[in-house]
Design a protein that fits this description.
Blueprint (H helix, E strand, L loop, with lengths): L5 H5 L3 E6 L2 E5 L4 H14 L8 E6 L2 H13 L2 E6 L5 H9 L3 E4 L6 H18 L4 E2 L12 H11 L5 E6 L4 H13 L4 E7 L36 E5 L1 H15 L5 H16 L4 E6 L26 E2 L10 E5 L6 H8 L1
Parallel strand pairs: 2-10, 3-4, 3-6, 4-5, 7-8, 7-10, 8-9, 11-12
Antiparallel strand pairs: 1-2, 9-12
Helix pairs in contact: 2-3, 6-7, 8-9
Length: about 350
Amino acid sequence: MIHPHIADALKTPDLVRLSPDTVLIRFESMKVYSALAAVRHLLDRGAVRPGQTLIDSSSGIYAYALALACHRHGLRCHIVASTTVDETTRAQLEVLGASVEQVAPSTSLKLDQELRVRRVREILAERPDVHWMRQYHDDIHYLGYQEVADQLVKALPEAALTVVGGVGSGASTGGLVERLRQRDPSVRLVGVQPFGSVTFGSQDHHDPEAIIAGIGSSIPFDNVRHHLYDAVHWMDFTHAMAGTVALLREHAVFAGLSTGAAYLTATHEARRHPDRVHLVVGADTGHRYVSRVHARHAEALDPAGLAPVEVDSPQQMSMPWSTMAWDRTPGPDERKEDTA
């Protein structure tokens, strides 16, 4: 196939078998699917027009995806970037035509996120013609993953499937599983969170090395549908690093830290559920983590000696790795909607 734009080529994932019961779905940049579908949907319904500026806050992966989608469809792009956005990503954004501003450095990921959202609101007040994509809250970001789910059904038609991946904004794992469950309601979803994320209640735990960009949240995300998750794992940096290094060492897969965390989680879940195929969601490559993770491979823990503490509630969790059965329990806002 000859693609009309590089974004159409980049969005396509590869399926790699890691073991008889574990498969990796590897994206070069997973959110390209989400951004392309969201932007196309907005254009088709007339919510945005060619040449208009789209804006959002991002720690890196979504910024790149949105810049590609804007380049693909003739739109302008403005990114309010986290301090964690690396020089390589920023350079690509600027060459693609996106304007980029980074918030002031902060020792707090929560403050970093709050500063970015505050700056977006300031820009919108100054420029009402700018469209805020709201990747954390607008469910149009679920749309792109329907196509990925349909591909998985064709590739794994008979599998009893468990999807394992970072929760992040909720759209990727949530979008995959909502679509997959239309065909098979027994598909399980296991979410991975860093300590310090409010999404599943670990905000009181501080991980001094936490740089697992994109899979946690310091502010509530409306796109996270808690009722989709069967289990949750909370993991610190050292354990995510162990999974990331092991994935490269054992399977030659160069991936990001969230993929390593999902891989370590999936190996544990596969031991508990050997009758199921565990799909590891690999959101991006490892380039952003070379110095902080891969270059420190000699420090990585041996995954064979690692296991989570099983808890019955978020209040019981402890570092460095905890897990609990979530059993598709709605979140607080979802429970309010059910009783409204």
